[in-house]
Design goal:
- With 140 residues, this protein is α+β, with helices and mostly antiparallel strands.
- It has a domain of 89 residues.
């Protein structure tokens, strides 16, 4: 296990910034990080034990308890996800939304197919054609 300390991670952080590895979440505090050549990947796992923040990577450096760029890249994602979870847990629960019950005295508008506009959107990056539907100015 690697003890995470800011002073020991500076070189690994710089290397991660230069390489831009892809990080995917594969479980609770467990991530898959691409290798420097982009052909392979390594698994990084984080644990908090007795107040110590620890990491584990299955690359060569991680196996000898050295901080690697895989840990640095995955730690950025892990910190972001953990903060989002804390914010969601701390946020007050939203009150239930009122249910709209149609009034029997007020007539309901009838469906008018002329309000529907079908079109095709062309993505500027991929030039793919994407069907689109608009009702009363709202994309559906």
């Amino acid at each position: 296990m690697i003890k995470l300390e800011a002073s020991k991670m500076t070189k690994a952080i710089e290397k991660a910034k230069a390489i831009h590895p892809r990080v995917s979440c594969i479980g609770e505090r467990t991530y898959k990080v691409t290798s420097s050549d982009g052909k392979g990947s390594y698994t990084v796992r984080f644990v908090v034990s007795n107040g110590l923040k620890l990491a584990e990577c299955d690359c060569k450096a991680g196996k000898v308890s050295q901080v690697c760029f895989h840990v640095a890249a995955a730690s950025a994602v892990n910190i972001g996800l953990q903060r989002m979870k804390q914010q969601v847990a701390a946020a007050p629960a939203a009150p239930p939304s009122p249910v709209a019950i149609p009034s029997p005295t007020k007539p309901q508008p009838k469906f008018n197919p002329a309000r529907i506009v079908y079109s095709v959107y062309v993505c500027p990056n991929t030039l793919r054609r994407i069907p689109a539907c608009t009702v009363d100015g709202w994309n559906v």
